[in-house]
Structure formats: structure tokens, C-alpha cells
Amino acid sequence: MKGTGVTKAFHILIFIILGVMAAQAGVSDVMADTPEGLKALFDQGNRAYAQGNYDEALSCYKQIIERKGFSAPLLHNMGNAFYQKGDMGAAIAAYERALYLNPSNSAVKHNLRMARNRMGLPVDVPPAWEKGFDLLNINQWTWAAIGAFSLLGLIALLKGIRPHALKHRGVNGVSICLLLAFMLSGIGAWVQYQRVGEGVITGGDAAVMISPFDTAPKSKTLKTGSIVEMAKTYGGFIRVSDRSGSAGWVRKDAVTPIVPENLRS
Amino acid sequence: MNPEKVRTQARTVPFKRMITASMMFLMAAVMLVWFEGPTHGQRLSGDLSATLTPGEIGLGETAMLRVSLAGEKGAPPIIPETKGLQFYPAGQSSAYESVNGRTSSTKSYLYMVRAQRPGDYTIPGIRMEVNGRMLMSPPLKLTVLNTVGARQSLPVPPAHRPARQYPQSDVKEAADGHVAFIRITPSKKRAFVGEEIPVEINAYFRQGVGARLTSQPTLQSPAFSSRELSEKPVQTERLINGRPYAVLTWHAAISPVKEGVYPVRVGLNAVLMVPQAVSGRRSLLGGGMFGKMFDHAFDDDFFDRFFSGTREQPVQLKSKNTQFTVFPLPVTGRPPEFTGAVGQFNLRATATPGKVAVGDPLVLKTVVTGKGNFDRVMPPRLDTTEGFKTYTPSVIATSGNAGDDGRKAFEQAIIPMNDGITEIPPVSFSYFNPETQVYETVTSRPIPVQIASMPAQDGIARRNLATHPPDPSTKGSDTSTPEAKDTLAPVDVALGSVKGSMRPLVRNPWVLGAQGIPLGLMFVGLFLGRRNRKFQKDPTLLKTKATKQQINQAMREMDRAITTHDVPGFFKAGREATQHCLSAQWGLQPQSITLKDLKERLYGNTTGLCRLFESADAAAYSGKSFTQEELSQIRTTIQKELASLRGDGLST
Predict the structure, then answer these.
(1) Element housing B130 (H / E)
(2) Do B492 and A77 touch (CB under 8 A)?
(3) Are B326 and B223 within 8 A, CB to CB?
(4) Contacts of B363 in chain A (CB under 8 A)
(5) CA B329, CA A149: separation in Å to the nearest integer?
């Protein structure tokens, strides 16, 4: 009798332990997609980075991307981890993505310059007037333009329906300001939009072919970390052009687009 | 006897005689043709003729040589060598002739003739083998004047242009009796180690023998390497020992890798289509009279090939050994920076951008051009790297065919480490010139450059550079150092806002489409504003519009009253419509307009309005009734008259 009771208790204990483990797994799965869960994963990645475990740090960061998406700090930290591992191409790609989301981040700009210097790549120095448009990213400029345009539309409608209500001189001044804001936002969005079609050469120096075939003659080699403008694709190749204007075909897996089509890119 | 039968018999007899006579005539004609025709029994002896048109040409002009054989079938003619003259095959032609029942065929071979020098030339008799006999034409004379004549010379087709001028004297020996052979002709047979020697590889195939290549020419030598051959050979025709050959020519370059005396030969695999020998003319219908007649009709090369056939014969062509003497590169005078390039080269160097900050890389591009072995051309070096951090240069472009001028470009990243630098040092490139047999060094000019101090945001990097000056690295990218790790900006501790997609808003079709809303609002507002301004400028417009609305409303009320047969309501609405219309024109209040005003002020076509008022009074005070039809008529009249008063149409 006693033995039977012990066995029963043992079975119950095993069942409870397994149940708790399963529940925890389910809970952690659910929790990971919540802001708290993502923050925990992010912190875990940062701790691994501080300890020098860059692979583990990258694994945590990539999980956040797969579960939820991108953020500028996340991409910055990924860039640092790739940099410490010596993978400059991936580091430059991560920094460029971080700058796409937050163009005014000076820390990312500094680290990007460091990475490009390590690869012996020239650092782009944009003209002074373009630097002003790094305050916001493309979506922020777009919202600003939409807002200004919508307000302009509303004012125009109100003026048409109730002309006497908006006869105040200040209304014209506001309209002019909104128009200027719309134009500046449009320019800002256009400046930031230039990054959208760009990619970074990663995974080693890329051979540029004159035709999209493996047996085609090679015209030049693009260094890892080089920024290229992406155009059409054919088979496993993509047509790119570098800053000097020369164009050719490289293997698709040699280019990481700054704006990925999906989360896993 | 029956007279009818007699007459029939009389008619039948002449007919039979006619048939018999015709048959006999036909047989006689056939026999006449057969015995007198050119193909039966004995064959005519071949008539070989050669003509040269014109007989006198200017230097640089071309004459046409035609060699014709009539009535027979023979081998291609053997053109004798004539010093100073070049013969280019220009095709063949066949002609058939029938004269007085006799048919004959003539085959002609055409050649273009050109002279290298003015003078009088005699082309010896041209020989041709015909049915085992050798026929020869009379000699021909050609006069080449020392002037460029006005007569336009026939252009030599590109395929017939003679090849590059290499020593060809032993080609004839190699060709002696061979259907196919290969030859390598170098531009020189003495060279230095690493020197590029242009060569020409010619594969000869006798005309009439088809050939299919099964490999590219391959170099066979223990001490030479070769660059890639031109992909497709150039095909030409040449006469060797008077026989036409198809010639395939490749241009290549070989380079000795060690000193000594070595043979070089080239090999080529091909399959020859050798025509089967046809002994005599086999008659398809036997050797009888009709068989031979039939054979004559098909007496042509085309049918020979059709009926005779070919056999495939794989062959491995090998050229004779050509001995090369290779000399070592001299040690005396060899510059320390010499890396093995042999030839004649030039150097050009550029750097971009022209202005950078300390620590930012410059791209140094060097281009080596010239003639020589570019496989041995290594990146040129900076004369001094003091103040710079340099990276391994890489090849970015190579171009040029074997034996021709070439180009090789290199790119190298260099980083200025202090802002006192004003120029990039010269770049040097050393090579051995086989022509002068000395080492030569070409040096570029210094490249001016502006180096600015580091930007403020890179204060961290500046501190580190000052305390930990880096070592110039020449092997690949810089290796990670503890100092490099510390200069990175630290990681972010806040995750920030996570976005599911990085796609820009402007690429979202919903966002773009939604901009139609404020755009629409803007257009509506602008339209309304314009309308308001229009009314403000002319207040009567507003009033006219209000009047029109009131009249339309009254007309609708009249329609309703007709439908419900509401006579008082009909006349009330009609009166209102009239009053509103006339008040706008007369400037009176609508309610003040009476029948008296109508009678005083209205003329002509507006009597219906007066009758409306009268009928209204009659309906109100005397109780007169009106049918719906009468009310409709009144309404129609009112509408017309009001419209004529306003000068526009009223809405109904």
C-alpha cells in the first residue's frame, strides 16, 4: 500500500514538473512577442555582447527581427556585434539600415565610418544642405508632408464653404507656412528615399559580371561593404551600379538591400 | 458490198498510214539526236580556256582571271606561281548551252589578280587534270602601270585578304601532298623569360575536303605558357602550290617561363569529310543508250556529291617543332621593386576624392598600359608610405588581346594619418624592356590632396589615433585590435520602437491613395472659393439664382397640385412663380404684384399670365372648377411665358 502511494506521488510530481515546463514554454513563447519579452531578449543580447559572446548576441537580435521587426538601436547593436566579429560587410549593412530608420544618430554614423575605414572604403560626405534633412527618417518626412498637405486641403475647403470665417490675415500666413512645410517635407522624403534602392556588398568581395551568367566575363570586383544601387534581377543575379556609375551583374546573395522586402532579408 | 462500209474503210486506211509514218519519223529523230548528240559513244575532248580581264591595270587595281573548261568535268585548275602577282579565289560558275540540239556545259573558276609592283607579267599556262589527261591553257600577259588608274578596282572580299606577313616559305613544303596541316608562326624565336611573343596559328584544309574542328589549338611545350586564344578563328583562302586551301587563323601569345632552348609545337584535333573516289561515271540506268542520256542530264558537281558520298576521318594535326631560345633576365641593373613585368609600359595614377579628413580613406587608382606580358604586371608601389596607412591593392580591370596594346588597372585604399600631408607620393613601376634589354622604371607625378582635420564627432577616434598610432597594414583588411574595439560607440540599451516593416510609406498604395482626400478637399475648396468670389463681384447673380430656385420650387408645387387636383394650391403656386419672376425684373416685392400691374406692363405673348391671375380669382371667388387637363395647359403656358420673360429655360 505504502509503495503504491509513493509511486503515485512520484507520478504526480513528474506530471507537475512537466506541466510547469510546458506552461513556461508556452508562456515564454507568448511573452517573447510582447514588448516586455522583446526587451528581455534585447537585454540578453546586450549582456552577451558585453561578455564577448557576439554570436549569441546576434542570435538574440535576429530573434527580435524575426518575431517583431526592426528598430534603429537593434540594428546599431547588430552592427557592433558584426564589427567585433570582423564581418565588416554585415556591419556596414546593419549600420546603413539603422541610419535609414534614424538618420540623425551620431553614434551609428561614427561606427559606420569606423567600419568603412577598416575596409578602406571612402566615406560619403553629403553636401551641407542635405545634412539638414537627416533630422527625420523617410516615414517621418512623409507624415509631415501628409499632415501639411491635409491641413492645406482643409483650409482650402473651409475658405470655400465659409469664406467670411477665415478672412483673418493670419490664415494666409498659416497657409504659406504649411505650403513651405509641405515642400520641405517632400524634399526631405526624397533625400531619404535615395537609400531605398541601395544595397551593401556582403559576404566577401563580389565579382561583377558583364552578363547574368556564371560563365560571363568579369569586369571588376566590388569590395565588401561597398554601397551599390540595385536594379533589375535575372535568375540568381542582380544588376547593380556603384558610385562611379559602372554597372554589372552580381550574385543576389552577395548584396544585402538596405530596405529588405521581408523580415528575413 | 455495203457502200457505207466501203467509205469507212477508205477513211481508215489513210489514218493508219499517218500513225505509222509518225512513229518512224520519231524514231529517226531520236536516233539522229542520239548519234549526233555530244554524249553518246565518244566524248568530246575538253576545251580549256583562260582569260584575263582587263589586260592592263594600274597599281592597286584588280584584274579578273577566268579559267573555263567546256564539255568535260575536271579537277580544279592549278594556278602557277607568278612572282609579283597574288591570286585570290573568287568563286565558280556553271553554264549550260543548247545549240541546234547539241547541249554542252561549261565550268568556270574565277580568280582576282593583284600586283605588288608595276611591270609586265606573264602568267604561265594554267593546268587542269581532265579524265586522267593534263590540259594546259595558253599563257596570259598582264601589264601593271605605275599609276593609280581611274578605273575602279574590284574590292578584295575581307575573307580573301592575305594574312599577316610572317615567313611563309616552308608552308609549301608542309603542304606538299597533305590534305590538312597546321602551322605556328612566331614573330620571333629568341626571347627573354616572361616576354610575350605574339604567334599566329594557321590550320590549312584543302578545298573540297570538309572539316570539323573537335578542339582548339593547344600549345605543346615544356617551357612556354600561352594566353587564351581568340575564340573564333578568321577564315580565309590561299593558294599553295597552285591548290586552294581554306585557312583558319588564330592569334595568340606565348611566354617562356624558363631559360634555355626549347621546341614549341601546336596540335589540333579535327574530323575530315573525305569524298569517296568515283571511278568513271556510273550510269544510273546502266550503260545503255538511255542510261547515258540520263547521266548527261545530271552531269554536275552537285549530283556527284549526292551520289558519291564522304567518309569521316578523325585526324590529329601537329605542327613541326619550332625551336626557341630563351634568355634569362639580366641581374645587373635590376631595380629592387622589379616584380617580373617584361614589355614596354606606361603608368598613370589618380586619387579620389581630392579632399578628405584625417583617417578617411583615399582611393589610389593606377593604370598600367602598353605592350607586354600583363600576367606579370603587379600593382605599382608608392615610393614612400610615410604618413599613410595602406591596404592591399586589387585589380579592377584588364583588357587587351594577345600581341596588342593592353591595359591593367589597380585600386588601392590609403589613409592619411595627419593633416600635414599635401600630396600623395609618386607611384613607381619597374619592368624589363626586351627591345632595349634594360630595366626601366616609370614614375607618376605626386598627386596633390587636401587633408582636413578630423570632424568633432570623431573625438574618440582622434584620441585613440594620438595614443595608439596604427601600423601600416599591407595584407588584406586591418585585423581587429583592442584599440579598434574601444573606438566603437557603445551599444544602445533601449530597444526603441520596433517596426514590422522597413518599407517606406510612399510605397504603400493605401497611403498614396488616401492623399486623394485632401487633394479633393482642396479642389472643392478652390472651386467654392472661386464661386463665392464670382457672386461677390456681381451680387445680382446671387439674387438671380435665388429667384430661379423660387420659381422652380413654385413650378414643382404646381405639378403637385395638378396631380392632386388641388386647384387653389395650383393657382397659388402659379401666382407665386409669376410674382417671383416679375419682382426680379421690376424691382418690386413679389407680394405687391397684381393683375393690374400685369395688364399695365406686360404685352404680347404674356397674356397667359394675365389669364392665370384672372382664373385664380375666378377659382377663389366664384368657385369655378378646372380639370386636370386645363390646369396642365395653364401650367405649360405659364412655363413658356415665364421662360420668354427671363430669356432662359425654367427647370420643371
Answers:
(1) strand B127-130
(2) yes
(3) yes
(4) 122
(5) 77
